[in-house]
Amino acid sequence: MENLTKHQLILVTLLVSFVTSIATGVITFSLLREAPTSVTQTINRVVERTVEQVVPVEIITNVMREVKEVKVTIDEEAEIISAIAKNKSSFVRLYSADEKGDKSLYVTLGIVVKDDGLIVADKSFISDKAKYVAETGEGVAVPVVIVARNDAGGTSYLKAREKNTAVSKLFPVLFDPNIPKLGQTVIALGGEAKTGIIKGIITGFSEKDGRSYYEVDFPVPDSFMGAMLISSQGNLLGIRTKRSEVVGRNIFISGNSIPLELETIQFDSLSATSSSANLPLDIEKTVSVN
């Protein structure tokens, strides 16, 4: 040993340690094999409990996080599906009527805003002298007549010419009294030939001529003219009109900027001098909202 160098001593030490560890392992294994069953069971329980207490903590945390994320996603999807179903009977497709009173060419979408079936539509597409047919989501065609218009707001108001069972199946939208928040999830609901949706978020607000407009993060296609902008709870936030299109391709006018109180209508001398509530629906009269 005295003649060994420093490096040789280190190697000898490592060799001895290695041999010792192997011998210890062999002896331990032999003893455990010869030991009573009760002893080995106790040792196994200690090892299992130690592993249970130390290893699974991170695994359980990750699993819980994944479950939470899945639950949030499912809840949001269910909420959106419910909001769409809630408004399926709250809008109609307006068509021009031919000589027989049947639907002819598609004009625009109309939104039901009152329990009596009052429909609001973009005035840019509605002619005071034309006849129209409203088609419900169930495909039932109902002849409608213009009962009012709002020149300042750019909206026209229509009602069924006579009582119709299809009208009773229409449900007015619920206007959201609150201003949406930046980043809030919204859904555009509309479509010319068939109903479609566009999901997005609110990205901005603007004011013009005393009216509020909402900006979204998606361009609105031409087929969505007159479409509703609803919250994930199904409440109406805005409507796509020609005036909102002038402001921007991704702009909706606030639903709260649309006047609905037709009791305040002033009639001209050609229409009537009575209140709008008594306006006969079988007479084509056009009045203006103040």
How does this model look, in words?
The protein is α+β, with helices and mostly antiparallel strands. Among the domains are: about 90-170 and about 260-280, Thrombin, subunit H, CATH 2.40.10; about 185-255, Thrombin, subunit H (Beta Barrel). It contains five helices and twelve strands. The strands form two sheets. A six-stranded antiparallel β-barrel has the order 1-2-3-6-5-4. β4 and β5 (about 140-150) form a beta hairpin. It starts with 5 loop residues before the first helix and ends in a 36-residue tail after the last strand. InterPro entries: Peptidase_S1_PA, Peptidase_S1_PA_chymotrypsin.
Please outline what is shown here.
With 290 residues, this protein is α+β, with helices and mostly antiparallel strands. It is built from five helices and twelve strands.
SSE layout and pairings?
Blueprint (H helix, E strand, L loop, with lengths): L5 H29 L2 H18 L1 H32 L3 E7 L5 E10 L6 E4 L9 E4 L5 E10 L4 E6 L4 H4 L16 E6 L5 E13 L2 E6 L11 E4 L4 E4 L2 H6 L3 E4 L36
Antiparallel strand pairs: 1-2, 1-4, 2-3, 3-6, 4-5, 5-6, 7-8, 7-10, 8-9, 9-12, 10-11, 11-12
